[in-house]
């Protein structure tokens, strides 16, 4: 394994996961409501989606890239609808008798798949991956097409970098989870729901003609 290429990809994975957006908000909210395991698995769904987009970018699959960009509008609409639905669910969540009780029946598989689908619903992410991977691969292999082993190294680095961020975030948030009262958790759920609705509106606004 090319250690230099792997470390570059690891940093990319960390930098892509770190900005706080709807995915980070959901990871924090789920960690508070369900514990570190569910919070981390939610983030892992995003890491898997990042790895998927990373593979496309590393391999330069032009047909897939073109189809994803062409599907930008329906994917954005679906992602906005999903965000709005989750926002409403949080706004309607009942008061728990204890902060650590779950507001809904979130399972590990549901936690991972929901965030995986939500991350994939942002087709513009792939353009970022294509641009970043192109710059790395060009500088690393002098403009030649990446080999299978190099592409695998880059994808693995992106996945582990993203996963490390979500593990750290869920671990940090879980350390204060048991200190929250039921009333505080309800406030957090409502605030998270309102912010998710805001993200949904913003995503729809990006589709409007400039």
Structure description:
Its main location: membrane. It is a multi-pass membrane protein. The chain is an all-alpha fold. It has one domain. Helix content is 78%, strand content 0%. The protein contains nine helices and no strands. It has helices spanning 3-17, 22-34, 36-59, 62-70, 72-91, 108-120, 124-141, 148-174, 182-205. Helix 2 (22-34) crosses helix 8, helix 3 (36-59) packs antiparallel against helix 8 and helix 5 runs antiparallel to helix 9. The longest helix is centred in the C-terminal third of the chain and has 27 residues, at 148-174. The radius of gyration is 18 Å and the shape is globular. 40% of the residues are buried. Residues 97-104 have low confidence and may be disordered.
Shape: globular
Structural class: mainly alpha
Count of distinct strands: 0
- Spans with pLDDT under 50 lasting ≥5 residues? 97-104
N-to-C span: 45 Å
Keywords: Cell membrane, Membrane, Transmembrane, Transmembrane helix
GO molecular function, one term: amino acid transmembrane transporter activity
InterPro entries: LeuE-type
Subcellular location: Cell membrane
Task: Produce a short descriptive summary.
The model is unreliable at 97-104 (pLDDT under 50).
Features:
single chain; 210 residues; mainly alpha; 9 helices; 0% strand; globular
Spell out the blueprint of helices and strands:
Blueprint: H1 3-17, H2 22-34, H3 36-59, H4 62-70, H5 72-91, H6 108-120, H7 124-141, H8 148-174, H9 182-205
